[in-house]
Amino acid sequence: MRASASIADSISKYLCLLALSAATPTHAQTIVHTAAQTDTAPKYQSANGAIVGICVDIDRALERVAPGLRFAGDQDWIPASRVDAELTAGRLDSACAISKTAPRLESLYFIEPPLFSADYVLIARADDAVAIHGWNDVLALHEAGVVLVDHGFGPAPRLRSLGVTVDDGALGVKSNLLKLRAGRARFYFHRVLGLNEEMKKSGMAGEFRILPLVMDVQPFYLVFGRHVAPDTLEQARRGVEQLGASGELKRILRKWGDRAASGAAP
What we know:
disordered C terminus
């Protein structure tokens, strides 16, 4: 009886170990710490008590094609203007849909190919008959050609390099439309992606018009802090490449009503 009990106990332990082994992933997952960026809809936006959007869908899609990665934190808000500092300090590992600037190129890793590209336009007051055919027309307005840009976002340095007078003191569509309505600038420069919806939410859409000319096209990237391991970067690169090749990035953009993106990278 004792021998039988011992054999049964050994078999039971073996089966338990076998079950644990089967339940353990062959490759341990790397947790990639990220965050939802405020005032960036439809990259991130609230819906039914959760944070949803283009970037949340991209995170989940990357987890499917790169099972060694798990993105954590996209259900927690952080001011968009703090993202660069958090990445540089190592408190965040990654951020979604970030444009290139000279300082960012020095402090962050940009994953190629880009996630998508988006058109940028100028918004003017509805009663302003100004016609713009290019940046030279804006420059010709001199002090009457101030352009509002969201605080902490990539376009400001680029516009300044063109000689444009930029006011980037406010963040968010509503805040900048209020400044534009008050006459504190002539234009507001913003990506078309999500613009109509944000203007409607502001309650002031009828007071402004979107000028028809596309003033710029900017690619947006998945980025990582310089502290992140090369293997993680390579997994992310392969994942983004696969999502682009399969058409999944384009599908995600279409889902969120993107009429202005130039399309996911091939």
